Structure formats: structure tokens, C-alpha cells
Amino acid sequence: MIINKNEIPSLLDKLAAEYRVMAPVKKNGLVEFAAIKSGEEACLTYANTKKPGKEILFPQSEELFNYTVDAEGVRMQDNVDPTSTIVFGMRPCDAKSLVLLDNVFKNDQYEDVYYLTRRNNTLIVGLGCNEPAATCFCSSMACGPFSKEGSDIFLTDIGEAYVVEGISEKGKELLAKLGLAEAGAEARAAAAKLQQEVKADGTINIEGLSDKLGGMFEHPFWDRLHEKCLGCAACTYLCPTCHCFDIADEAKDCNGCRVRNWDACMFPLFTLHGSGHNPRPNGKARWRQRLMHKFNYFVERYNATACVGCGRCIKNCPVNLDIRQALADIRALD
Amino acid sequence: MRNPYLPLPMKLVKNFTETSDKLIHTFTFEFLNEQDAENFQYRPGQFAEVMVYGKGEAPFGIASSPTEKGILKFSVAKVGVVSTALHMLEEGTIVGVRGPLGNSYPLEQLKGKSLTIIGGGFAFTTLRSTIQYILDPANRGDYGDLTVIYGARNPGLLLYKDELAAWDARSDINLITTIDREVEGWTGRVGFIPTVTKEVAPKSDYAIICGPPVMIKFTLPVLVECGFTPDRIIMSLENRMKCGIGMCGRCNVGSKYVCKDGPVFTKEQLDRLPNEY
Fold first, then answer.
1. A5, A12, A165, A184: which is deepest, by most CB within 10 A?
2. A313: alpha, beta or left, given left = phi > 0 and alpha = psi -120 to 50?
3. What pTM did the predictor assign?
């Protein structure tokens, strides 16, 4: 199917009448996902959002439940959000990250109702990347500028129009309702050409990396890697696959709420025991944790690498630490 | 979908000062709803998140045994925001409890076996649960000889003093208590846990050990000397935790989460994990 770019605002208006539509919008000089009221607000020419798309399902800060305690006892109100949502124009790296996060928020014993309820009520419209940024390396990470994993519907920008593909059943059902025109042979060929030819940095070879890291916990490699790191955790906050969180209570008088906030393994407090003991007491241990988690522990648990190559950790690092270099250095070790 | 983050309401029925330094209290909670009591099926070695409304929640090993119906007990040291708030709670206050969480001591697998249980300091809570469970008339016949070695810095810091006295009077449990330095009136042993363990030289099928890292470090070689193989030394770890259900990412040791894959591991399992706990 196909849709002309000038028809996008009216399509979004139509969708917004029925769903909450989250789309990239320009705000304070940055691009971020926000609920839009009018299709005109959407900005589909962005490279990537500052904050990762995970925040739509797993917000930076969210109130899990509220409670009131008084003479009559305890009353709780759960804040599960079942709003039907369409995310329009998510980049393939962020769409793939949601597939990875699904592993975390549902395990053999427990289901995270807050994440999963949003997940089950959200449809992802992915948008391929015609011009990957210099920091993008999705082509190295079982993803790519036109990876459709995690998208329900996928858009390919062929200039004047988007070629539209239904990927999941959910996506195909929505497309059937929208009644878009069929794409002609020329448009389809243009999309296929882009999908085949456009690549991000694909030079980082992670084959066998997990096994290699498995035997590297005590390796001297970790002694110096972290040296210029400031421990600001921008890399982890802005990582679409990082899922660590903190739980805290906020209360005033008899009303309180349980809040979940993004947290990061790069902070010393993250693992500090009440006794003062800290199993990861320094930058070395924390950097090792970050890399090990992504490229070994996550692989062992879920058989997937917890990196999609979005490059946010590179772009936002105040001291220019580049995870691609770290991976190349590990590969170069004997 | 059941929401694993929502606490069950419980009433604090007893806030008991356990140790002479007053830093450890034992809290007894009663379920407010009968259905919750029925659903809260736990095993010795598991833990729960205890919540003080308005302050937050923190994970504590369950000190009561499943054979003690309708209540949960926790012995808590005063260290942080939640534990301090707990210490100051008046009896009758409603708290929240989320659990049971984590795996447990493998008591099914240990049936028919003799056991040595070693505890140090206030890490004796889930061990109390285990001992209480085994000593229950309904279960005692399922297990062989039971040796318990328990130490604290001084007599005042031993937990569950009344129960220790009662156990000492029984013939179906060999209880050895020890303190670090001689104190007038003390009739038990004097010496650190590793030394006392060496003197006692327990011969059992399995050992369960829980205590501060330094005690574990020096006691493990003694157990190996006594002939316990790594798959027969059972330990319980603790790490900073939030969710307790394997999602928030902080309590991992290698690819294992202490909250969900543990807290109980055999030495054999731990030997295969990074030494980062």
C-alpha cells in the first residue's frame, strides 16, 4: 500500500479521533514522542528521538499505584493504563528494543501489568531510515535501518510518499480499515531498493562475543576501560534496551504513591547494601556490568543481545566513550 | 493478570525488641484477609517485601515457618528509611507485604537427610524458619539428625533466645551456640563460627549456611574439610533489591538474579558465577 506524504496529517487526525496517537514531535529543540492532537504536529524527518521509544511503554517516571491510609484503613488505586495507542513513526532500533524488553517484563513467574497492559494496547508503526546517522550501528546488531521486527506496520520513505506494509496481524487489520491505495510496481521497487541498499555501520562483529565475555570476568581489560567515564549514566538512561528501575514511595499526609523511575547500573547507589557493602563498588565493576549485561547475561537469559545499535549512548556520552570501540577492543583480545 | 507489585494488607501484632543493643526488632504480622493468609503459601528461605505506608518497602527474609499459621515474622535491623520506620511502628498499625518471593531451601530434596545449619549474627532469620519447620511434629520424622551452630558477638545479640533455650532442651536437635568473647554467666561455647565449626566437625549429608560475608568466607573451607561437597553446601545470598521479581535489574550476580533465581544457591552454583556479591 502507499500513502502520499501530504495525506499523513489527515490520516493522523483520523487515527487520533479513535486512538491516542504518539508521534515524534519537535519540542525544546529536541525530537520526542508525544501524544498528538493534530496530524500537523508529527515530525517524520527526524534521525532519532533524544529519549528512546521505550518510554512509551516504560515511562521514565510513573505512578504505579496510589494509596490512602486513614482511620478507615488502607485504600489503593492501581494505575494500569489500557488506552489504545498507536505509535506512529518509530525507528526500527526502538521497535526492536520493545521485542527485547518483552523478555524482561514477563517471565515464567511474574507479569509486569503496567508494561504489558500498555504493550498489548499499543500498535507500532515503524519508519525505515533512509539516512542512518554516523553513530548508528544497527546493521551490526541483528537489526538494521529497515528491520521490521517489533513493527506492526512499516513505512518506507520513497520521496513523495511512504510505501506501507502490514507486518503483524494487528497491523494488517488496521490497514484493512484505512483503505489506502495499493502501491504501484515502481513504488514497490523503490522501497525494495532502499530496504536492500541502505545500511548503518555494520562493521562490529559480535559473533561469539557472548562466549568470549563469559570467560572474561577477571580479565585485565576491564581495568582501564572505565577510566574516562564520569558515571553520569546518560548511556543507560537513553538506551532503548536498558530496563533497570528503582521503586520509591512519595507521600504527603495520608496520601501516597508507589513510583517507578528509570535507574542505572552506572550509579554506585544502585547496588549499595544497607550494611555499606557494595558488590559493584567502582567504575570498573559498573562498566563491566553494563557490557556483560548487554552482551553476555542477557544472551544467557533470553538468547538475544541487549543492544540494537541506536547509537544514543555514543551520541550522548559527555566524554566520547564509544561502545563500538569497546566491542572492537574485546574482539581484538587474544 | 495478577499484579505482583501490589502489597497485601497486614496488621502489626507484635513489635519485639530482639537484641540487647535494641537494633534488631522482630515483627509479627497478621493477615487482615483470610483469603490472603490462604494464598500466601511460602517455604523456608523465601523473602517478602515489607511496606510501611508512606515510607516505602524493603526485602526481608521470612523468619516464621509455614507451620505457624496466619502470621508472618521478620527480624529487621535498623539501617535505612524503611527499617527505621518499621522499628518505630506501634502495634496495630497496618503495613503492606508483597510475596512470598524467591526460591527456598530445598527442603523437599533434603527429606531423609541429616543437616547441619550454621548461622551467624542476625542472618539467622530464614534459618529459624527452617529449624522451626523441621522441628514441627508433622515434619520432624522426614529429616535425619539436625545440628545447629549459631553464633553472635555476645549473648545479647543472639536472636530468639527463648526458642534457643527450648531447642537446647530437646533431644532431637543438637544446638551449639557460641559468642565471640568470654562473658560472665555464659555457658555455651566461645569462639568464631569457623573455629567452632572445626571443633564440632559436623558430619551430615547437607550443610546450610547463612551469615555475614566474612563468616562465610572462613567457614566454607572448614565445611569442605569436613567432607561437604560443593553441591551439598547450601547458601543464601542477599543483594540490594527493588522489584523482587527479576525485572529491575540490580541484584544480579552474573546472569542470575538473587531475587528470583535465588536467594538460595548451592556452593556449586555460586562457584560458576562471577564473584560479585
1. A12
2. alpha
3. 0.94
